[in-house]
């Protein structure tokens, strides 16, 4: 099926041809008819005038020849109106012609014309009558008559020729129109198909421009636009993916709110931060996602003031997540009216460190102040000189001394810890026989265990693989752990030391007790300095609160690690993982 | 609630607003509970006083939600689900407001307790408060997600809190028997414990309403553990 344009062009041609014919019919035909009629009349008049120069007798004699020569019927009428002769009729049959209008006109003016119906011939006729005079005396009238049909016929001939010509012209011109419109339409149609495919989202190959005319240029332009559009899409896609990568790659969580307070965009950082699925975030309100009263209050405040707001929010109860939320308006881009952007920084670790530091300072001051208060108190009492009892004085002095030593131990421990942490402590890596060290530690602690009626059991398979470590430090580690185990095991309990060689590349020493155990929530914080499960229990038993912290750091310095498992009321197992491999290079730093 | 569409955009917005306000209210009450227990643990009277002051916002929001719900009932004449949602919202709103008041009550006791030395380390009380708090959150989650299973879980959780309360009661009793000087403090702690227990009752009340809203079944006077038992039988 051809397009509508094709029919439009064809119809235009058709209408043009019909219009030409109609114009001819309405304007030309009357004129042509007029001209031809006048021409016939003029000729007849001329003939009649010439004939009138002849005498009546001559005319009468040659009426037949004259009629043939003029191509008309000739009637000779005498002045009284009687028909003397007629080239086509018998004169006797004809009635008086004096009352005929052309004859009457000729009688007066010498020449008369008329177009009327001839009763004789029963058709429309032209009549021309001329008076024949001889020396100013009227001899009669010569009248020429010619059928109007004759004229019409010649007009018809003429028209037939014209129509034929028009027809001959019309066919090739329509043919031409057909070809021409098809030539115009077909590239336009191809262009339309191309643009339709572009609209449908395809990327069609460019079209071939096969001419230099307007259409050809149009095709070239469309091709250019197509190419440019694809280039722009490529550019935009590349930019978008770059932005998205940056957006998603951010550690910070970012989300935007639409005008209805719903989350319409967010990045992977946010999803990871709050640990929710995409569907649990997209299209929800911040309250639905975060359930944070603080965040909601900040959002309400932001909507009231329009000023950028910073708010710290805490999410999650079992695993606290502290976020620093920054709420601001998205400005300067069209289509972003009423949109809000929230950026979240995870400050959990920071806050933890801050708390640890604050705890540490509070703890150190507390730890130092307690023995100092005791020392000052006892010395003050002695200074006042009110105590004279030798025994009491001794007891006071001993308490002051004990506290001073405790202070000293605390400072020593702090120094040790600081040295390990900064790498100042020199580690002497040598081959160490673990069984030997355990034996020594056991011997050292034997009396203490016995005093608390605690059975000390050793289960050391021989031979244990040798490993490289700083022997004194390993001793210190084991002593610390064993000391704790004995301290927190009620009398009658058991402390067991067990060693395993080569457990996945580690030499493992396990020290288990049947003590009071450690609540689960305290386990992760055990290595922190001064962290105590119960604020008072280890201080009462004489610890500085730094033992496990030192062990943890020493283990790290050996490239090993510390694991503590515990059930409250049943006991605790401390596992020490020493790397069984050779010396960890010259690496003495943790 | 998620995908329901109403012919009136305004109606939709109003319902959503009620839901948002309930969530905000629940977040505020949860924070109030957390803070009141934190004030107890840290012996922080300033924090306790802050919680008491912040109850004004909870009360204001409570009024707003109630007014909004009543206006919706009057103007829109909701039917079926919407009607159940709005009546449920009114009930939940009341529960949340009461919970806010209870956090205030706890804080008042905390201020009094802080005037005396600490009686004992708190172990069960924070656990209990955390369960009660998570019950509020879960019941609102059940409301938002129309999760009957979750609502029923919340209803069962109430018993854990009850038994913890009894445990604390027994423990404090021994303190009081040993040393009469501890009676004042022990009674205060007991009142706190009882208040937390009542908070969990309110959370269960919210969960009951959520079950009603979703299923249309009134479970308020049934107890989750004897649902198989004879009807009408109540916990003693």
Can you walk me through this structure?
- The complex is a heterodimer of chains A (590) and B (236).
- Chain A is of the alpha+beta class.
- Chain A contains 15 helices and 17 strands.
- In chain A, the strands form four sheets. Chain A has a five-stranded antiparallel beta sheet.
- Chain B is mainly alpha-helical.
- Chain B has one domain: Up-down Bundle (Methane Monooxygenase Hydroxylase, Chain G, domain 1).
- Chain B starts with 8 loop residues before the first helix and ends in a 21-residue tail after the last helix.
- The C terminus of chain B is likely disordered.
- Chains A and B meet through helix 9 of A and helix 1 and helix 4 of B.
What is the CATH first-level class name of chain B? Mainly Alpha
Strand order of the biggest β-sheet of chain A: 2-1-5-4-3
The quaternary structure here is: heterodimer
Q: Assess the beta-strand content of chain A as a share of residues.
A: 15-25%
Of all protein chain pairs, which has the greatest interface, and how many residues does each chain bring to it? A-B, 12 and 16 residues
Biggest beta sheet attributes of chain A? 5 strands, antiparallel
CATH superfamily placement of chain B = Phosphate transport system protein phou homolog 2, domain 2
Number of helices of chain B: 6
Given helix and strand content, the structural type of chain A is: alpha+beta
Number of separate structural domains of chain A: 5
For the record, give the distance between the C-alpha atoms at the N and C termini of chain A, rounded to a whole number: 86 Å
- Structural class label of chain B: mainly alpha
- How much is the average pLDDT of chain A? 82
SSE string of chain B, helices as H and strands as E = HHHHHH
Range of strand content of chain B: under 5%
As a whole number of angstroms, the C-alpha radius of gyration of chain B is 19 Å
At the fourth level of CATH, the homologous superfamily of the largest domain in chain A is Histidine kinase-like ATPase, C-terminal domain
So, CATH architecture of chain B?
Up-down Bundle
């Amino acid at each position: 099926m051809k397009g509508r344009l094709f029919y439009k062009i064809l119809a235009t041609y058709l209408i043009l041809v019909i219009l030409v014919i109609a114009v001819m019919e309405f304007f030309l035909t009357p004129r042509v008819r007029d001209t031809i009629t006048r021409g016939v009349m003029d000729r007849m008049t001329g003939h009649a005038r010439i004939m009138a120069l002849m005498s009546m007798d001559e005319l009468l004699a040659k009426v037949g020849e004259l009629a043939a020569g003029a191509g008309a019927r000739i009637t000779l009428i005498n002045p009284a109106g009687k028909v003397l002769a007629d080239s086509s009729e018998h004169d006797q049959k004809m009635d008086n012609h004096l009352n005929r209008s052309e004859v009457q006109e000729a009688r007066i003016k010498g020449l008369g014309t008329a177009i009327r119906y001839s009763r004789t011939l029963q058709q429309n006729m032209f009549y021309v009558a001329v008076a024949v005079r001889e020396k100013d005396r009227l001899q009669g009238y010569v009248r020429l008559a010619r059928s109007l049909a004759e004229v019409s016929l010649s007009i018809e001939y003429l028209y037939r020729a014209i129509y034929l010509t028009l027809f001959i012209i019309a066919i090739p011109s329509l043919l031409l129109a057909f070809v021409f419109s098809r030539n115009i339409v077909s590239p336009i149609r191809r262009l339309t198909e191309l643009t339709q495919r572009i609209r449908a989202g395809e990327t069609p190959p460019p079209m071939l421009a096969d001419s230099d005319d307007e259409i050809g240029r149009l095709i070239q332009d469309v091709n250019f636009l197509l190419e440019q559009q694809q280039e722009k899409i490529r550019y935009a896609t590349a930019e978008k993916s770059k932005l998205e990568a940056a957006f998603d790659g951010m550690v910070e969580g970012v989300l935007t709110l639409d005008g209805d307070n719903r989350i319409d965009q967010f990045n992977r950082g946010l999803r990871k931060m709050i640990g929710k699925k995409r569907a649990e975030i997209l299209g929800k309100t911040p309250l639905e996602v975060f359930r944070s009263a603080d965040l909601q209050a900040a959002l309400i405040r932001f909507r009231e003031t329009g000023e950028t707001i910073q708010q710290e929010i805490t999410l999650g109860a079992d695993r606290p997540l502290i976020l620093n939320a920054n709420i601001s308006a998205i400005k300067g881009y069209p289509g972003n009216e009423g949109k809000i952007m929230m950026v979240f920084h995870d400050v959990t670790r920071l806050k933890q460190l801050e708390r640890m530091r604050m705890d540490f300072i509070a703890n150190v001051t507390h730890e130092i102040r307690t023995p100092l208060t005791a020392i000052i108190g006892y010395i003050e009492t002695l200074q006042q000189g009110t105590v004279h009892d030798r025994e009491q004085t001794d007891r006071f002095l001993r308490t002051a001394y004990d506290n001073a030593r405790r202070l000293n131990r605390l400072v020593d421990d702090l120094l040790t810890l600081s040295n390990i942490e900064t790498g100042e402590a020199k580690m002497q890596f040598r081959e160490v026989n673990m069984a030997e060290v355990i034996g020594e530690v056991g011997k050292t602690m034997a009396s203490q265990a016995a005093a608390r009626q605690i059975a000390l059991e050793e289960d050391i398979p021989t031979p244990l693989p040798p490993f490289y470590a700083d022997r004194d430090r390993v001793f210190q580690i084991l002593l610390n752990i064993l000391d704790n185990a004995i301290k927190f095991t009620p009398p009658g309990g058991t402390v067991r030391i067990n060693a395993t060689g080569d457990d996945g590349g580690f030499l493992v020493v396990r020290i288990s007790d049947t003590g009071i155990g450690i609540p689960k929530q305290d386990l992760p914080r055990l290595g922190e300095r001064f962290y105590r499960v119960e604020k008072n229990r280890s201080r009462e038993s004489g610890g500085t609160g730094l033992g496990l912290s030192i062990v943890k750091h020493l283990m790290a310095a050996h490239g090993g690690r510390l694991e503590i498992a515990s059930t409250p009321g049943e006991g605790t197992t401390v596992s020490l993982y020493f790397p069984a491999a050779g010396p960890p290079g010259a690496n003495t730093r943790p | 609630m998620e995908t329901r569409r109403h012919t009136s955009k305004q109606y939709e917005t109003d319902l959503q607003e009620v839901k948002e306000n309930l969530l905000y209210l629940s977040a505020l009450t949860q924070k109030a509970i957390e803070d009141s227990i934190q004030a107890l643990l840290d012996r922080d009277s300033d924090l306790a006083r802050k919680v008491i002051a912040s109850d004004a916002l909870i009360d204001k929001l409570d009024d707003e939600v109630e007014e909004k719900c009543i206006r919706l009932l009057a103007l829109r004449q909701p039917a079926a689900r919407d009607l159940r949602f709005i009546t449920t919202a009114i009930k939940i709103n009341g529960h949340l407001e009461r919970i806010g008041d209870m956090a205030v009550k706890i804080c008042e006791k905390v201020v009094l307790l802080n005037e005396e030395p600490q009686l004992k380390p708190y172990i069960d009380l924070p656990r209990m408060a955390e369960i009660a708090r998570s019950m509020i959150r879960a019941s609102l989650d059940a409301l938002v997600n129309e999760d009957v299973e979750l609502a029923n879980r919340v209803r069962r959780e109430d018993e854990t809190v009850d038994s913890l309360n009894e445990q604390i009661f027994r423990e404090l009793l021994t303190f009081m028997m040993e040393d009469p000087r501890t009676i004042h403090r022990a009674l205060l702690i007991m009142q706190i414990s009882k208040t937390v227990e009542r908070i969990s009752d309110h959370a269960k009340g919210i969960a009951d309403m959520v079950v009603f809203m979703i299923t249309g079944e009134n479970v308020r006077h049934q107890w989750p553990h004897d649902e198989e038992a004879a009807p009408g039988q109540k916990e003693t």
